[in-house]
Amino acid sequence: MDHSNLHARHIQDFSNASQIEPHWGYAGRVVPCTNDAGSCAYLDEVYRGHDRGMLYSGILWSIIGGLLLIFAICRHFPPSQHRWVRAGQAWSRRWLLPEFRSLRWLFGHTTRLQVLVLAATCAYLFVFSFAGITYAKWVTPVKNSPGVYNTRTSLGPWADRLGLLAYALTPLSILLANRESLLSLCTGIPYHHFNFLHRWLGHVIFAQSVLHTIGWCVIEIRLYQPQPAVAKAWIKQLYMVWGVVAMILLILLWGLSTPWGRRATGYEFFRKSHYVLAMVYIGACWGHWANLKCFLLPSLILWFIDRGARLARTALIHYRVLPGGKGMFTSIPASVTQYESDVLRLDLALPNPVSWEIGQHFYLTFVQGGIWQSHPFTPLSLPGKRQAYVLRAKSGETRRVAAMEKESTPVILTGPYGSSIVQSVTPITNVLAVAGGTGIAFVLPILLDIARRKQHTAKVQLFWVVRAQRHVEWIAEELDALRKSGLVSVTIHSTGSESHESLDTGLSTPSEDQAQSKAQSEKNLPSMAGRPDLRDVVRRFVESTEIGDNCVFVSGPGGMTSDVRDAVAGCNDAKAVWAGDRRKEVQLVYDERLE
Fold first, then answer.
1. pLDDT in tens, 535-559
2. Is residue 462 classed as helix, strand or coil in its secondary structure?
3. Residue 545 DSSP symbol
4. What is the rounded distance in angstroms from the CA atom of residue 394 to the CA atom of residue 404?
5. pLDDT digit string (tens) for 24-43?
6. Strands in 67-189 per DSSP E
7. Measured between alpha carbons, how far is residue 97 from residues 86, 101, 201, 466, 567 in Å?
8. Using CA atoms in the order 211, 214, 215, 216, what is the torsion angle rounded to 10 degrees?
9. DSSP string of 190-226, one letter each residue
10. What angle do CA 548, 591, 332 make, to 5 degrees?
11. What are the backbone dihedrals phi and psi of residue 92, each rounded to the nearest 5 degrees, phi first?
12. Is the pTM of the predicted complex or chain greater than 0.85?
C-alpha cells in the first residue's frame, strides 16, 4: 500500500524515514518514532495490536489445518470396533444429533453439533477481537494547528482487528461454500453439510465489517481534528473509496442471502448474484487493503478451482468424440413422465460412461428452461448406464419444464457430488429407510442394492410417507422389484392431505406394463393413513431387531428429518453398547440438501 495513504492516520513521515520496520499485513513503520510522545505510544499500540491479530489469525488457520489433517489421516484407517469407541459414538449421537428446539427459530433444523461448532468459532473470534489490545486514550496536538488536538484511542486498533479477522475468514467462507470441496475431500463429509456454517460465517463477516466501518467513521469524523477537513480528506483517499465499495457489495450480499431477500428475488437470482457479488467484493477488499492479499488471493484461487472443476465434470459427461476425430458437446434427452401436475419422472440413457456411488447427486440443467439454472437431484436408480429422477416442479425452471407438456426434454448433468452412503451397510446391518414424497430418491437405491445382491440377512424396512396412495406409481417398477426380492418390507403411509386427482397434461403416462406393476404394488404393499409418528416408527424398528448394527436413512421435509434425528438420538445408549448390546448403537444418514 502507498505509505501516503497512512499519513493522515498515523502521522508518520515516510519521506524522511531512516528505517522502515516491516509488518506483515500492514504498512511498514518508521523507526525511530519522531512524533510527540502520545502519538508514538499510539503507534506502538496500533502495530502491536495488528501483529497480534495476525498471530491470532494464524492460530485459527493452524487449528483448522490440524483438524483437517487429523480427519484426512483417520479416513485411511478402518473404523475401530473397540467397545469404548462404539460407546463414545453412541453417546455423541444421543447428545449431538438433536436440535436445540428452543433455538429453531434462529438456526432452523440444525443439529446441536453444528450449532456448537459455530459457537466455538464465534467464541474464539469474540475473545481474540479484544485480546492483546491495550485500552487507553492519547490526546495529541495537531501539527501546525495550535490549540487543536486529536483524540487517539484503542478504538482504532480494535476496529483494525475486526477488519483483519473478516479478511482472515474469507477463504474459510469460500471453502465452506465450494461444491468441489476440499473440506469434503479431507473429512468425507458431503459439501452441503457445510452450508449452515457458510451462512453463519457470512453473518459474522458482515457484523465484523459493519463494526470496523463504524469504528473508523467515529475516529475520522469525530475524534480527529480539525473537522470537517479531516473527514473530507479521508473519504477521498483511494483505499477509502474501495472500502466504501466493498461495504456496499457486502450489504448487498448479506441482504440477498437472508430468507426475505431470497423470497423477494428468487433462489436462482440469489445464487448467480451471490457468485458475482462475492468475487467483486473480494476485488474491492484487495483495493481497500492490498497488504492482506495473503487471505484474498487464496479465496480467488479456491473459487476459480471450484468453477473449473465443475466445467470439467460436465464436459466428461457430455463431450463426445465423433468418427472424424472432432469433438462435440451434446445434451442428453430425458423422457418425461408426469404423474401429477407438479411431479415429474425423468429417465435418461447416458451417452458416456458415468460412475457414481449410491447417495451421490447430480446438478441438472434443463436446456429448454434456461441454461443459467441448475438444481441438485439424486438418481433413484442404481449406478449404471441409465438414470432416473423423481422431482417436484415447484417454481422457476422445473415449473417451466412441467408446463411445456413434452414427452422429452434435453438436460445437462454436472456431477456426481456427495459421497457414498452405504459404506457402513453390511449383510448383517438392520436398515430402516424413511422418506417423504420425492425424498424417496435418496433412500431407494440403498434398498435396490440390497435386493440386487441377495445377501442381506438382517431386517430391512422402507417407510414412505406420501400425500396420496396413488403416488406409488412414481416408482412402481422399483417397488415391485423390492417386493419380489423378499428382503425388504415396505410400508406406504398416506397422509391424505391431497385428494385431488392427477390432471390430464398431455404428457406421457405410464405404460400398460407400468400400470400393471403399479396395481400389483398397491395391492401387495401395506399402507397406513394419517400423520405418522416417526419417533415410534424408529423406536419399534430398533426394538424389533435381534442382532447386528442398526442404520437409519432419512430424506424428506425438515420436520421429518428432525423427528427421525431425535428418535435415533434417543435410541442410542452408550451404557448398553458398552455392555455389548450393539442394537443400541444406531447410525443415521440424512439428506440435508433442499429438494
1. 999 999 999 998 888 999 999 999 9
2. strand
3. -
4. 14
5. 999 888 888 888 899 999 99
6. 137-141, 149-153
7. 16, 12, 21, 25, 10
8. 130
9. -GGGGHHHHHHHHHHHHHHHHHHHHHHHHIIIIISSS
10. 115
11. -65, -40
12. yes
